[in-house]
Every structure is written in C-alpha cells, then in structure tokens.
Automatic annotation (TrEMBL):
This is Class II aldolase/adducin family protein. GO terms for biological process: pentose catabolic process. Residues 12-188, 232-404 form the Class II aldolase/adducin N-terminal domain. One of its GO terms (cellular component) is cytosol. SUPFAM superfamilies: AraD/HMP-PK domain-like. Keywords: Lyase, Metal-binding. GO terms for molecular function: aldehyde-lyase activity; metal ion binding. Coiled coil: none annotated.
Length: 429
C-alpha cells in the first residue's frame, strides 16, 4: 500500500506514528515504543521514559550499528527485543510495540485474536504468533519474541504484556497494528452482544481475488474548481474518520457525486491517514482517471448513484462497535434515542458475499437505506452532503456503542412503535 511517510526522516516517521497511536488511546504516556532500522544498519528508536503525547523528532534516539548511542535520551528499555527482531529477520525494517487495550485483553487471557472475523484482516495481519512472558527489557524477552519472528510471524501477542508487530516499513507495521487491534475490539464487543462468526479461508480468498478495477482509463481528465473542492472534502472526512477511530489506514472508501452520475472516490492501496487530493480518483462516463486505481467497491458506489438520485455521498468503513453487530449477525436496533432513529431509521444487514460485483445485490443498491451492514465486512452509510453522511456514521457508531456498553446493565428498552410513529409524523413527513 502506497504511503508518503517513507519520504520522511526516520525520526519524523516515528514521531508521527507514536502520536497517532497515543491520540487514538492505543498506548499510554509512558508505554509503547517504535523503531526503524535504516539502510546503514542504524536503529532509530523512541526514548525511555519520555512523554509519548508530546514526543518531538529531536527526542528520537539513534543506536548506531556499532552500538554507539546518539541522542539526548536513553533508548527505550525494550530496545533489546527490537534489535533481536532485526537480527533475526532482515526483511523487517520497522517494529511497533504497544499496549492497546483490546490486544492486552487477549494477552492477559492468553489467547490470540482470530483475524478471520473481518474479510481482509487476515491478509493485512498475516498469521499471529504468541510469545511467553519474560521480564520486560530483558534479553530473554528479546529471545522469545525473536523466535516467534523466526517462524515467519510479523504480529505477535506478548503474554501478559501487549503486542509487537513488524513491517517492511513503518507504514506497513502500523497498518498491521491498527488492523489487529480492530479485530480484537470487534471480537470483544461482539462477544458482549452475541457470538462472533468467522469467515473461512476460502471466503477470504474470494474477497482478495476480486478484480481491482475493470474501468477503462480516460484519455483526458479535467479538474474544474467544483471538482477540486469535492476532492478536498473527501480528504478531510477520510482523515477525520481515521482520527476518530472510524476508519483505519488499510480500509475505508469515501465518494461524492460530482455531476449527474459522475463521481469522485478514494483509491485502493493508498494509506487513508496520508490521503491527498492528488490520490482521489475521478469516475466519469464509466471511465477512471488515468494512472489511478479506484476502490474495489467503486461498482457499488456507481450503482447506488445511478439508482438513487437523492444520494450524493457514500462512506463505506469498519468502525469497531458497528462491526460488533456485523460479525455477530445481531440486529442493530437504533430505536435507542430519538436522534438515532430519525437519522438512520431501521438498519438492515446483508450476508457476506452479497457485496461482490458478481452478485449485484439489489438490497444494497436499489433499496439503499441510510445505513446498511454487510456481515463480516463493513457498514455503508449514505446521505446528501458528505458532512451529513459522516454525522450519520458517528450517530450509528455511538448508537452501537451505547447498546454494547448497556448489555452489562440489562436488556435494552427501545422506543416503542407509537413513539416511533410520532417521530415519523413530526420529522419525516
């Protein structure tokens, strides 16, 4: 997946990613560490005991290939296992270690999350290893982790500790980190409302085998001011979705109708955190902008726009509480508070696989509701203005979260039919 972060200095890359992890609540002020090994064999790593919430590029430490330490701080106390991984796996160029709550939950009950819970997660994360407990910062911990990486794993659950992930670069490691934590949260939240269902390897392979794009290229593309304005809107909403935990770097599609049935859509294989207006793909008269590959879900967006003239923007994503309903096939009853039902009405779901182009599912396209859940895959939100559609996504996720959290208190008591009818008469007629 393409990322612009590799063009930055290792100290800037590390600072950017640790900030994302901290702001998303996936590590603490003192917890977690990140490293990059450069082409010279020098290792750039976060410092020991320095606030992760305000880390600056100048705080990053460089441990030279000969062991010399350059920087104003000590390297992370967990540096030994970072080095052990690099020594064992020359293909690994970056390592992330953190204590995200859901993955820590798995580590303390000594289980590995099953990535078959979401269609593309297994492809992003790969198989998951498991390292037995050893003293933090010890050479023994480095040895047990390195042994797991020796087996070919790039993601490892650390017993009673957290997780460690490697990648071909920092962007690759972070995508794996985000996807694995999303899987863990989805399983945890899903287990509170039902029993998570898992896809077979064959179903996941079927998803991965879908063609990237069968849209012919335009010979010439025009970029009038109104088109460029929509590109900027899409980029802002994608980044906001990532910041709010409603989208991850490896998954999420946003589109806006431009003129008639022509529209703009996010590309495939481009990191959502770093998306720019140049990455957005124009689809005009059934053709794609030259040199760009639109999302694999482009056909769904195109058909929705064709058959639903009132819809002018679409968000397709995986947010953790909505995914809990997706993977358990549990009905998401948004008759929780008036606002939820007014915005969303009842949310249908469709079976996994019905979103593949070969099925051309009419429930997704012809009877397109404001929100629709695809089992073990995603949620589709539609609306007029893109900000409105994003608001619907937030309302849906908040409603799902309230229901999941409320299960510990008792059974949900929804607004009754008479109250819903009153809402319909006042707000929808």
């Amino acid at each position: 997946m393409a990322s612009k972060i590799n063009l930055e200095h290792p100290r800037d890359q590390i600072t950017k990613i640790i900030s994302r992890i901290y702001k998303r609540g996936m590590t603490t002020t003192s917890g977690g560490n990140i490293s990059i090994i450069d082409s010279q064999g020098d290792i750039w790593v976060t410092p020991s005991a320095i606030d992760k919430g305000s880390l600056m590029p100048s705080d990053i430490v460089c441990v030279k290939k000969d062991g010399t330490i350059i920087g104003k701080h000590k390297p992370s106390s967990e540096f030994p296992f970072h080095k052990a991984i690099y020594d064992m796996r020359p293909d690994i160029k970056s390592v992330i270690h953190a204590h995200p709550p859901a993955l820590v939950s798995f580590s303390i009950v000594r289980k590995i999350p099953n990535t078959n819970v979401i269609s593309q997660a297994k492809h992003v994360c790969g198989p998951i290893g498991y390292a037995k407990y050893e003293l933090p910062g010890s050479n023994a911990l480095g040895e047990v982790i390195a042994e797991e990486f020796k087996k070919g794993f790039k993601a490892v659950i650390m017993e009673n500790h957290g997780t460690v992930l490697g990648g071909s670069d920092l962007d690759d490691a972070f995508q794996r980190f985000e996807a694995l934590e999303l899987c863990a949260r989805t399983i945890l939240y899903g287990s509170q409302i039902g029993k998570p269902n898992y896809l077979t390897d064959a179903q996941i392979e079927q998803f991965e085998a879908q063609t990237q794009s069968d849209y012919p290229e335009m010979k010439q593309t025009d970029f009038p001011s109104d088109e460029v304005e929509k590109r900027l809107e899409i980029c802002n909403i994608v980044k906001r979705s990532c910041q709010q935990g409603l989208m991850i770097s490896s998954y999420g599609t946003v589109s806006m109708r431009w003129k008639d049935n022509d529209f703009l859509i996010t590309p495939t294989h481009v990191n959502r955190w770093d998306i720019s207006i140049e990455d957005i793909v124009q689809i005009k008269n059934g053709k794609r902008e030259e040199g760009k590959n639109p999302s694999r879900a482009t056909w769904i967006h195109q058909e929705i726009y064709k058959r639903n003239p009132h819809i002018n923007s679409i968000i397709m994503t995986q947010s953790p509480y909505l995914m809990a309903f997706s993977v358990t096939n549990t009905f998401l009853n948004v008759r929780t508070i008036p606002e939820s039902w007014i915005f969303l009405q009842d949310i249908p779901s469709v079976a996994y696989g019905t979103h593949f182009k070969t099925n051309n599912n009419t429930q997704i396209i012809d009877n397109c509701s404001t929100a629709l859940i695809i089992e073990n895959d995603s949620v589709i939100i539609t609306g007029d203005k893109l900000l409105q559609t994003f608001d619907y996504l937030e309302v849906a996720e908040f409603s799902a979260k309230s229901i999941v959290l409320g299960t510990s208190l008792g059974s949900m008591v929804p607004i009754d039919d008479n109250q819903v009818e009153d809402l319909r008469k006042k707000f929808l007629t």
